[in-house]
Design goal:
By secondary structure, the protein is an alpha/beta fold. It has 2 domains: about 210 residues, Rossmann fold (3-Layer(aba) Sandwich); about 150 residues, 3-Layer(aba) Sandwich (Rossmann fold), CATH 3.40.50. It has 14 helices and 15 strands. The strands form 3 sheets. It has a 7-stranded parallel sheet, sandwiched between helices. This is Glycosyl transferase, UDP-glucuronosyltransferase.
Length: about 375
C-alpha cells in the first residue's frame, strides 16, 4: 500500500509519533510518504522517510508562555494559509496514496476526502474551545466556530485515532469530547513513541536520577531555576536538565555538583530509561514516553494552557506522578521528587503502565488498522 502521512509541525510531539507510524509501515513493506514543514520535515528526513514540503496550517500567536488561540486563528486567515489546500490536493494527485493519515493537520484530511481517499485523523484533544472560556463575547463566537469546525472534521474522518492508553487509563481523557457517532469510530492505539523501552540502550548515569525537560528560556526559567535549587538541597539525587538552545548554561551561575545542564539531547530515550523521574510540562507526547518507559512524572503545565493542565491533573489523579505549578518552592519540588523516587506504590503503578504500552504496541496497532483498508 501507499500511505501518505501529514504532520502538524507545531510541536515535535506530532512529529515523533508520525515517525513511529512511518517506520512501522515502511518495515512492513508499505510505500510511506510524509508531508511536513519546518524543523519537523528536517527531523523526518533524517529518519530516512520520504518527505514532501507542505504549507504550515496555523500561525501560533502568544506571549509570556500563553497561547492566544483567537489571535492565532485570525493570523492564520490573514496569511491565507488555508489556501494551501490546493497544494495538498496537487500533492495527493501526484503521489496517489491508498490511504491518508493526518496528525492534527486538517488541510490534509480535507484534501483527502475531497479526492475520495480514506483518511484517519490522529488527535489527543477535541475541545479546543476550552481556550476561549471566560474571555469575552467575541471569544465565545470564535469558540463556537472552532467547535463546529472540529465536529465537522471528526465527522468526515474514517477513523479518529487517539495515541493514548484505552479508557479508563487515557491520560488525555479530560480533553476528549465527541458526539456519539464520532465515538463509534474512535480507536485508542496506545502510545506512539519514537523508541520502545526494549530497543533503547540505557545511558550510564548516576542513580537516583531526575531528567528535567522544562527548559530554562522565557516564562519557564523560574521553575527551571527552582529545580536547580531543589537539587542543591539533596546531593544524593542526580539531575540532568535540558536548558534549550537559547540558554547559555554559564549564565546560570555555579551549579550543584549533582546537576548537569545540557542544551539539547538528540535522543532523550536513553536518558529517560536511566532516570527514576521526569520533570516536564504537560505535553501529551512526553507523558506517553515517560509512561511507556515506566517513569513517574512531576508535571508543571504551562500557564493558561487548559490541555496541559488537564493532562497533568490526570497524571496525579491516576497515581502516575504529581502536578505542580510555577508557585512551587524548591522545598516543595524536592519533597515530591523524594516521594516519587522512593514510594513503592508509584513504582508498581508505573510498571503496569510500561507493560500495558508493550502489549498495546501503538505503531503496530495503527499499521493493522491501515492494512484493513488494503484487505
Amino acid at each position: 500500500m501507499k500511505v501518505m502521512i501529514f504532520v502538524c509541525g507545531e510541536g515535535l510531539g506530532h512529529t515523533s509519533r508520525c515517525i513511529s507510524i512511518g517506520r512501522e509501515l515502511a518495515s512492513a513493506g508499505h510505500d510511506v510518504h510524509v508531508g511536513a514543514y519546518g524543523y519537523s520535515k528536517e527531523l523526518i528526513e533524517r529518519k530516512g522517510l520520504k518527505t514532501h514540503k507542505v504549507p504550515s496550517e496555523i500561525t501560533l500567536v502568544g506571549k509570556a508562555g500563553s497561547l492566544n488561540l483567537k489571535k492565532s486563528i485570525l493570523a492564520t486567515f490573514k496569511r491565507g494559509q488555508f489556501l494551501g489546500i490546493i497544494k495538498i490536493r496537487k500533492l495527493l494527485k501526484r503521489t496517489k496514496p491508498d490511504v491518508v493519515i493526518s496528525d492534527s493537520y486538517f488541510m490534509g484530511m480535507l484534501s483527502a476526502k475531497s479526492r475520495g481517499i480514506p483518511c484517519y485523523l490522529i488527535v489527543n484533544q477535541s475541545n479546543m474551545e476550552e481556550f476561549f472560556k471566560g474571555k469575552g463575547v467575541s471569544s465565545k463566537i470564535v469558540a463556537e466556530l472552532v467547535k463546529k469546525s472540529y465536529t465537522g472534521m471528526f465527522r468526515m474522518a474514517d477513523k479518529v485515532i487517539i495515541p493514548d492508553f484505552p479508557l479508563p487509563h487515557t491520560v488525555c481523557r479530560k480533553n476528549l469530547e465527541f458526539r456519539k457517532k464520532t465515538w463509534e469510530k474512535v480507536f485508542f492505539s496506545g502510545p506512539l513513541i519514537g523508541k520502545t523501552f526494549g530497543e533503547t540502550k540505557t545511558r550510564e548515569l548516576q542513580r537516583p536520577h531526575v531528567l528535567c525537560t522544562v527548559g530554562g528560556f522565557g516564562y519557564r526559567e523560574p521553575i527551571f531555576r527552582k529545580v536547580i535549587e531543589a537539587a542543591g538541597l539533596d546531593s544524593s539525587i542526580n539531575y540532568t536538565l535540558l536548558s534549550g538552545p537559547s540558554v547559555d548554561p554559564a549564565s546560570l551561575g555555579e551549579l550543584p555538583e549533582n546537576v548537569t545542564i545540557l542544551k539539547f539531547i538528540d535522543d532523550q530515550f536513553p536518558y529517560m530509561k536511566a532516570s527514576d523521574l521526569v520533570i516536564a510540562p504537560g505535553g501529551h507526547s512526553t507523558m506517553m514516553e515517560a509512561l511507556s518507559f515506566g517513569v513517574p512524572m512531576i508535571s508543571v503545565p504551562d500557564q493558561k494552557h487548559s490541555e496541559q493542565q488537564n493532562n497533568a491533573f490526570v497524571i496525579e489523579e491516576d497515581g502516575l506522578g504529581k502536578m505542580m505549578d510555577y508557585s512551587a518552592s524548591p522545598e516543595d519540588i524536592l519533597e515530591n521528587v523524594r516521594l516519587l523516587i522512593s514510594d513503592e506504590k508509584y513504582r508498581n503503578k508505573l510498571a503496569e503502565m510500561r507493560e500495558m504500552a508493550v502489549e498495546l504496541n501503538g505503531p503496530k496497532a495503527v499499521r493493522l488498522l491501515v492494512e484493513e483498508i488494503g484487505n
